[in-house]
Amino acid sequence: QVQLVQAGGAAKTPGASVKVSCKASGYTFTDYYMHWVRQAPGEGLEWMGWISPNSGGTNYAQKFQGRVTMTRDTSISTAYMELSRLRSDDTAVYFCASDLEYGMDVWGQGTTVTVSS
Amino acid sequence: DIQMTQSPSSLSASVGDRVTLTCRASQTIDIYLNWYQKKPGGAPHLLIYSASSLHSGVPSRFSGSGSGTDFTLTISSLQPEDFATYYCQQSYTTPSFGQGTKVELK
Q1: pLDDT tens-digit profile of B60-70?
Q2: CA distance A68 to chain B (A)
Q3: Smallest Cβ distance to B53: which of A37, A59, A102?
Q4: From CA A61, how far away is CA A67, in angstroms rounded?
Q5: Residue A25 CB neighbour total at 10 angstroms
Q6: For chain B, N or C: smaller number of CB within 10 Å?
Q7: Which chain B residue lies closest to A62 (C-alpha atoms)?
Q8: pLDDT tens digit string along B20-42?
């Protein structure tokens, strides 16, 4: 079945970088954009950007430009989101989501990233 | 960037109640509006896309309406599994979410 599986969580110190993975299965990975969305504790959903797995083209939210890099490896149907210069307010659950039809209709289970000294 | 504003921020309701949530865009977004349900510890789930189309597998008690800048999500008869936070999201331009409406048990 169609699913997105994310790797386990990570604990990082301020200033470090984190790379979160999202493996797709059950559909043609290169046919649909992959979005990244995060939710900080007690906060709402925040869109970070998308990547076209076909072309590698990206569109980042202005807030994250310069700190986020989205990439993909089509050979293993996996998308990645790397966030650098981490701060404590980057502590959040990070989700990948694909829009196979309309809207973000398939979601990963989320990856918890904790930033603390 | 398009700002999405949801109201109310939270509401208390009982099982069986009819509930209406509102989402307003800072500029027109035609019908490029999606609704999601989010429960603690879980991933969001798409409920409604293109303002009023029900996503596959979503119960028919959920419905959406609106166009332009004003949208609503209605739950016709609230069920125990519906207590959650609901988010609207525009896909007219660079995506953005509303701040959410938490539906709690009265």
Answers
A1: 999 999 999 99
A2: 16
A3: A102
A4: 11
A5: 11
A6: C
A7: B1
A8: 999 999 999 999 999 999 999 99
